[in-house]
Write a structure and sequence with these properties.
By secondary structure, the protein is α/β, with parallel strands linked by helices. Helix content is 30%, strand content 14%. It has 5 helices and 5 strands, in the order H-E-H-E-H-E-H-E-H-E. It has helices at residues 40-45, 66-77, 92-102, 117-126, 152-168; strands at 55-60, 83-87, 109-113, 131-135, 172-177. Strands 1-5-4-2-3 form a 5-stranded parallel beta sheet. Helix 5 (152-168) links the parallel strand 4 and strand 5 (172-177). It is globular. The chain starts with 39 loop residues before the first helix and ends in an 11-residue tail after the last strand.
């Protein structure tokens, strides 16, 4: 056995010209083609539709229709290309029953019943998706984090990891449960 001392370089690298803060008026304006959700009111709330590589959280009490609304959005967006709907709360069969109730089983809507973030990330990167839905944030877990799904550490870690994926790959809609006090509800 041998002792090894590891030190971290806690000093951030120096800012160079152009890396620091600039007045907002000096930022070049970009035209962004928004992606319609197929639901006019949702598009209005999002400022005209989803921003490519956007990261969206749909929160609310359990049972109010968040999953159904996002299944409708996923179904609509799948008309333009493949969409991945990840359900960590229900089985694929349960999700299909809801989709049948909505009257739509599109060929380009893929369902994955999975809670492990590592497997979710593999599926996320396996294909060029138009949209990914993760239902729900509190039920996805990272096996490297030693706490239960829905715990503060898990939710923070999963949310940060999914945000990076959205910026790299495609837009993500997350479902988040809120209890009556307004805090995130732990996983069941």
């Amino acid at each position: 056995m041998e002792q090894e001392i590891v030190t971290k370089n806690s000093k951030p690298s120096a800012l160079t010209a152009g890396d620091g803060p600039i007045p907002i008026g000096a930022v070049q304006s970009e035209h962004v083609e928004r992606i319609s959700t197929g639901i006019a009111e949702v598009d209005r709330v999002l400022g005209g539709g989803m921003v490519p590589n956007g990261y969206f959280l749909l929160g609310g009490d359990p049972g109010i229709g968040k999953s159904t609304l996002l299944l409708q959005i996923a179904s609509f967006v799948s008309r333009t290309g493949p969409v991945l709907y990840i359900t960590a709360e229900e089985s694929q069969g349960q999700t299909r029953i809801r989709a049948q109730r909505l009257g739509d089983l599109p060929d380009h809507l893929y369902i994955m019943a999975e809670g492990n973030i590592e497997r979710i990330e593999q599926a996320f990167r396996a294909q060029k998706w138009q949209l990914v839905v993760v239902d729900s944030l509190q039920t996805v877990y990272d096996p490297e984090i030693e706490s239960a799904p829905g715990s503060v550490g898990q939710v923070r870690g999963i949310a940060a990891r999914l945000m990076r994926l959205a910026k790299e790959v495609c837009p993500i809609f997350l479902v988040g449960h809120v209890n009556k006090e307004g805090s995130k509800r732990p996983a069941a």
